[in-house]
Protein 1
Amino acid sequence: MKTRTYSPTPVNLRRLAAALQRGELVAIPTETVYGLAANALDEKACRGIFTAKGRPAHDPLIVHVPDLDHAEKLAEFNDAARRLVRKFWPGPLTIVLPKKSCIPAIVTAGRDTVAIRSPAHPLTRRLLRLAKIPLAAPSANLFGYICPTTAAHVLDGLRGRIPAVLDGGPCKVGVESAILDLTDPKQPAILRPGAVTVRELEDFLQIKISGGIGKRHRAGKKPGMIAPGMLSQHYSPRTPLIVKAAWATLPANTAGVFLRRPSGRHAPNVHWLSQRGALSEIARNLYRVLRDVDSGGYQQIWLEAPPESSGGLATAINDRLRRAAAKR
Ligand code: TXA
Ligand code: MG
């Protein structure tokens, strides 16, 4: 299959909307990472996502919608969920709620809940409006590899496996959305930290949010059905990655990835995630730099982690780094 990259002209957007309506796959830009989209109401189309990514069938998909009205057609909303999405959508927050029957089982991997978000990227918002269908979309990478934050990254993994990529430029946030389980609004649980932080969610909802895999998930009705974004090894480069607080000297054949541009240590194996250490810039560059050093022929990667005490995005960044560094 030939994979075509589409620039975001009005004609191309209409073409891609029609392709999605016909049940084809399209890689789409979002503010977090690129997603591999299909009509969420079309079981066969959604099956294609799993095939193209090599994704196991037990790993459910996130459904993308233009707004709350569309989301209410797909899931049973409660008041807390409504208030939350009015505040944080469009944006990098996914919520998990009881699903309605129109969502095929393949999307939710057989669960009775569905994950939904309204992405902020203007092109994908336009595509959602034109296609008039909800779009199921996990990240547009081969299963287990680093998420794509440019159209070129999507091609690196999925060229020949999907027909189309919409080029919307580099993603602004750079790490995947926060996932909040609101199935029981009295016991919200964060399943994946993101750019919308637990602190912001707690302040807004005025309720304690349980972290990691909440009790309900650990003791879930069906064992093993925890959120797969929680798999301990995920998002990984092929080169062994070691996350460190700091280092004095860098061994040969090792890529050193600093949080900020180091002064006066410019060697070919020295890389950095930001100019001055801003967390938003670190998050935006993280997957690109990991991909770059992963294909640099190094024996290992040493990467400096942001102190957890920096708050904000540090939690999401460290969460991804822990998984990327986990032993296979
Ligand atoms: O920012 C993002 O969330 C991106 C863009 C494309 O929107 N999407 C993304 O999807 O990162 P990805 O590859 O992480 O896959 C969706 C994840 C699953 O692995 C799982 O952790 C969680 O969403 N998920 C989906 N449905 C769920 C459900 N019903 N219950 C719990 N977790 C669910
Ligand atoms: Mg993914």
Protein 2
Amino acid sequence: MQRPFVIILLGAPGAGKGTQAVRLAAARGLPHVSTGDLFRENLKLETPLGKQAKGYMESGWLVPDELVLDMLFARVARPDCVRGYVLDGFPRTLPQAQAFGERLGRIEPIVIDFVVRDATIVERAAGRLTCKACGNIQHARFAPPRVAGKCDRCSAELVQRPDDAPAVVTERLRVYHEQTQPLVGYYQTAGVLRELDGEQSPEAVFRSLMGLLPPQEAA
Ligand code: AP5
């Protein structure tokens, strides 16, 4: 059996990880595992985990590692992840990366670092629109809805994420530089990091991303 194909999308909040993860997962037939989406699902369902994560997310802070790791490990243990998966928003701290590395053992992940300037991040967060029903990501300027306020994919309502408020975005960026950016050096040292220019159009980013990945092996 082939080794699982584990792709980690690293980058600042709003760098375009979610947008590209959906496309990449579809292109490679792999599940898209987003810790942010998993937490938002838990928030919506008002689970104990969602209640614990709520305050951290609303403030732009990271949820404590132990909560993230339990949730993530349970998700990637599901049968749909056996051939691999696309990780979006995980790992985000050195302890998360180390714990995940131990779990992967001899499997080497491919880590893609989305390089995007802070000014671009602020602009993208300010205009982001997310579908309440299917989670599709659009943007008021860069991916405008065909019908105002409605999702292009399923026509449900598009909303702004509460953590895209300007003050929270500033805090998320600060937290990113302090706690997540050190992972770039960590994975560089491990020899598994590939840099991606995330300032290009979504289509050009996708082409560059596919160019950084090895060709898909036959099943
Ligand atoms: P999470 O949901 O992971 O948020 P994030 O990493 O902050 O990333 P975003 O979803 O904001 O951005 P993205 O890079 O996916 O960009 P997108 O494609 O949407 O996490 C939320 C919270 O959960 C965290 O703050 C934390 O509290 C908690 N959490 C999650 N994981 C955790 C972990 N591992 N540890 C601890 N806590 C955790 O794009 C943004 C916008 O730009 C969109 O509108 C899009 O249309 C547009 N856009 C995208 N690409 C382009 C482009 N190339 N050109 C123009 N516009 C573009």
